[in-house]
Design a protein that fits this description.
The structure holds two protein chains of two kinds. By secondary structure, chain A is mostly helical. Helices cover 79% and strands 2% of the residues of chain A. Chain A is built from twelve helices and two strands. A two-stranded antiparallel ribbon of chain A has the order 1-2. Chain B folds into two domains: 145 residues, Response regulator (Rossmann fold, 3-Layer(aba) Sandwich); 145 residues, Response regulator (Rossmann fold), CATH 3.40.50. Chain B is 44% helix and 19% strand. Chains A and B meet through helix 1, helix 9, helix 11 and helix 12 of A and helix 1, strand 2, helix 3 and helix 4 of B.
Chain lengths: 297, 326
C-alpha cells in the first residue's frame, strides 16, 4: 500500500512535468499538440546517450530540454509559417522524431543501469537510495510549476494566454500570435523532453518505444486535475495537472495490482479521458435543454 | 453537482480497490512468491513463460501449492514495466522472471537483491544486465535467446540451392534485431549470398515491406523481431502469393507457414530458465550461475508450406529434421 503510493507519487511527479507541458499547449494555447509522443523519447534519447558516455547528468538534462525546445519550434514553424494544421504539424514532427531518436541513440535501447545519473548525484549528497527519486522529483516538479506560474503572469505570459483565449483580439492588441504559438510549443516540448530525460534515468534505460501514449496520459492528467480542482487561477491549474498525473498513475498502479487484464488498460485509459472530456459538454447540453423546457413551460 | 458526484465515485472506487488489493496480498506466507513481468503478449514470449512454469512443475513446484506465481503484462508500455517491477519489490517476492529486454532492465533498476531471471533477452551484456555471460556479477541470470542466425542463413542455401539473394525483414527500432542483421550479413558474405534489407517501424508496414522484396529476392529470412513476428501472417501471405520461401528463426513462424527453421524453441528456452529458477530456490546464488544460450536447437520443416509454393525439400534434410509438419 505504502509502496503503491510512493511509486505513484514518483511517477506522478516526473510525468507531471510532462503534464505541465501538455497543460501549456492544451489549456493555455488551445493547441492540440501531438509532438509530445516524439519529444518525450527525444529527451530520453539525448540525455541517455550523454549519460551513457559518462558526461555530467545535469548537462544531459539541460541539453535534453534544449532538444525538446527545438522540436516544439519546428511544430510551431510548420503550423504558423507552413500553414499546416496544428494536429498535422504535431504528427509530422512526431513521426520525424522517431527516426531522429533512433539516430541519436544509435540503437533502439540505451541502458543506464551502470551509469552515473542525476540520482547518483543526489545520493552522494547523503539522500538514501530509496528516497532519492522522490526528493528530486518533488524539487523539480514544484520548481518548474512555480517558474511556469511566474512566467504566465509576465507580459509575455499574458500575451501567450491571450493568443490561446482569443487570437483575433490578441492580434488587434498588437500581439504577434505566430511568435506566441511557437514560444508556447517550444516551452511545452522542452518540459516534455525534460520529463523524458528524467524518466529514462528513473527507469534505468531509454527505449525507442517509450513515447507511445504520452499524449493520452498527459491529457488524462490535465483533465483529471481540472475535474478535481476546477478551473481556477493559474497556480491552482498547474498544481491540478501535477495532482491529476498522480491520480492517473495511482489508478494504473491499482489496476495492475488488482490483476486487471493489462490488455484492457489502454481502453480503460481512453474511456476515462473520453468521459472526462465530454462530461462538461454533456452537462451543458443537459442544462440548456432543461432550461428550454422550463422556458417553454 | 454531477462533477462532485463523479469525483466522489472515483475516490470511493480508488479506495475500495486499494483495500481489495491489500487483502489479496497477505494470505500466503510460506509459499515461494515468483513475480513474472512480461513486456507484451506475443506467441514466443508466451511460450517462454509457459515453459518456465512447466519446468517448475516438473521439479515439484506448482502454482497455488508451494509457489505463488503473480503474472503481470506491461502491454508494451515501459512505465508499466517499471510499475510492475516496483510492485514485486514492495510485495517482497522471492524471485522475478523478466521476459524481454525492457522488462528485465526495469526489474534490474529497482532491485539489486531479489534474484532476477531473464529470458528472451538477446544481449544481456550490452543491455547492462550482466558484466558477462559467464559471470553475471549481480542478481541477474537466466537465458538469452541469441538466435543461431548463421545456421539459419546456411539453411537458406540448403533448401534453396539456387538462391543468390535473400531478403531480411526487421524493425529498425528493435535493438535485438540489429544484432542479428549484422550476424546475418556476415554469414551471407561467407556463403556468397547477397542480402537485401527491408525495415519497418511498426506492424502496419510489414506487408508493404515484404511486398518491396518481391522480384528482388529468392528467399526471405525473418529474425526474432517482435514487430515482424507479431505480424508474421502478413509476411507469409505476400511470400506465398509470390512463391518465395520464408525461412524463420523460431518455431512459431514455421507453425504460421514459414518453410523451415533451425532455431530456438521458446518453450524449451523457458524450461531451461525454469531449471535455473529451481537451482536458485534450492539455494544457489544468481551471480554464480552463468547466463545460458539455448541448449536445444531444433530443425523444423513445414512440408505443407513448401509444397504449396512448389518447393521440394531434399530427402536428407527431411530425414535430419526434428519435426516435419505435413
Amino acid at each position: 500500500m505504502f509502496g503503491l503510493i510512493v511509486t505513484a507519487l514518483e511517477q506522478g511527479l516526473v510525468f507531471g512535468i510532462m503534464a505541465l507541458g501538455v497543460y501549456i499547449t492544451f489549456k493555455v494555447l488551445d493547441f492540440p499538440d501531438l509532438t509530445v509522443d516524439g519529444s518525450f523519447p527525444l529527451g530520453a534519447a539525448v540525455a541517455s546517450i550523454i549519460i551513457f558516455n559518462g558526461s555530467n547528468p545535469f548537462l544531459a538534462l539541460f541539453l535534453a530540454m534544449a532538444a525538446g525546445l527545438a522540436a516544439g519550434c519546428i511544430t510551431g514553424l510548420l503550423n504558423t509559417r507552413g500553414k499546416i494544421t496544428g494536429l498535422l504539424s504535431g504528427i509530422l514532427t512526431m513521426t520525424a522524431l522517431y527516426s531522429i531518436n533512433l539516430r541519436i541513440m544509435g540503437r533502439a535501447n540505451v541502458t543506464l543501469l551502470n551509469s552515473r545519473t542525476v540520482f547518483t548525484c543526489i545520493e552522494e549528497l547523503g539522500v538514501p537510495h530509496s528516497w532519492a527519486f522522490l526528493v528530486l522529483f518533488i524539487i523539480a516538479a514544484f520548481l518548474i510549476k512555480v517558474l511556469l506560474d511566474c512566467f504566465l503572469k509576465t507580459q509575455i505570459g499574458f500575451a501567450l494566454r491571450a493568443t490561446g483565449d482569443n487570437p483575433e483580439m490578441a492580434r488587434a492588441n498588437g500581439i504577434n500570435t505566430d511568435t506566441m504559438k511557437i514560444l508556447g510549443l517550444a516551452l511545452s516540448n522542452g518540459l516534455v523532453a525534460l520529463s523524458g530525460a528524467l524518466v529514462a534515468q528513473y527507469q534505468g534505460f531509454a527505449d525507442i518505444g517509450m513515447g507511445i501514449g504520452t499524449i493520452v496520459s498527459g491529457l488524462a492528467s490535465v483533465i483529471i486535475g481540472e475535474m478535481m480542482l476546477g478551473e481556477r487561477g493559474i497556480g491552482i491549474a498547474t498544481f491540478a495537472s501535477l495532482m491529476g498525473s498522480f491520480i492517473y498513475r495511482l489508478s494504473i498502479g491499482i489496476a495492475l495490482r488488482l490483476g486487471f487484464a493489462a490488455t484492457d488498460l489502454k481502453l480503460l485509459t481512453t474511456i476515462l479521458v473520453i468521459i472526462a472530456l465530454s462530461t462538461p459538454k454533456i452537462r451543458n447540453l443537459l442544462r440548456s435543454t432543461s432550461s428550454t423546457v422550463s422556458n417553454g413551460n | 453537482m454531477p462533477k462532485k458526484a463523479f469525483v466522489f465515485i472515483l475516490m470511493v472506487a480508488l479506495l475500495s480497490t486499494t483495500f481489495m488489493a491489500c487483502s489479496t496480498t497477505t494470505s500466503s506466507d510460506k509459499m515461494i512468491k515468483i513475480g513474472i513481468s512480461q513486456l507484451v503478449e506475443h506467441p514466443a514470449l508466451d511460450s517462454a513463460r509457459e515453459g518456465f512454469i512447466e519446468a517448475l512443475k516438473e521439479a515439484g513446484y506448482e502454482d497455488g501449492k508451494n509457489i505463488k506465481i503473480d503474472f503481470q503484462n506491461a502491454q508494451n508500455d515501459m512505465t508499466n514495466a517499471q510499475t510492475i517491477a516496483r510492485k514485486f519489490v514492495d510485495e517482497k517476492v522471492d524471485m522475478i522472471l523478466a521476459i524481454a529486454t525492457p522488462a528485465a532492465q526495469a526489474a534490474a533498476n529497482v532491485t539489486k537483491d531479489i534474484p532476477i531471471l531473464i529470458t528472451a533477452v538477446t544481449d544481456p551484456v550490452s543491455a547492462g544486465l550482466a558484466e558477462s555471460l559467464e559471470n553475471p556479477g549481480g542478481n541477474v541470470t537466466g537465458t538469452t535467446d541469441m538466435n543461431p542466425v548463421a545456421e539459419q542463413i546456411k539453411l537458406i542455401k540448403e533448401l534453396v540451392p539456387n538462391a543468390k539473394t535473400f531478403g531480411i525483414l526487421y524493425n529498425s527500432g528493435e535493438i535485438n534485431s540489429k544484432v542479428q542483421v549484422d550476424i546475418a550479413k556476415q554469414a551471407a558474405e561467407e556463403l556468397g549470398l547477397n542480402m537485401v534489407e527491408a525495415t519497418v517501424t511498426n506492424s502496419n508496414e510489414v506487408s508493404q515491406a515484404t511486398q518491396s522484396l518481391v522480384g528482388r529476392v529468392d528467399a526471405i529470412y525473418v529474425p526474432t523481431d517482435n514487430t515482424i513476428v507479431s505480424s508474421i501472417g502478413a509476411v507469409i501471405k505476400v511470400a506465398n502469393d509470390n512463391k518465395i520461401p520464408v525461412i524463420g528463426s523460431e518455431r512459431g513462424q514455421v507453425d504460421a507457414g514459414a518453410i523451415a527453421t533451425k532455431g530456438i524453441d521458446y518453450k524449451e528456452l523457458g524450461k531451461q530458465t525454469g531449471q535455473i529458477a529451481v537451482e536458485i530456490i534450492k539455494g544457489k546464488k544468481p551471480q554464480d550461475i552463468p547466463i545460458e544460450g539455448a541448449k536445444v536447437v531444433t530443425l523444423i520443416i513445414n512440408q505443407k508450406a513448401a509444397e504449396s509454393i512448389g518447393l521440394t525439400i531434399p530427402e536428407e534434410i527431411l530425414n535430419n529434421a526434428d519435426e516435419v509438419i505435413k
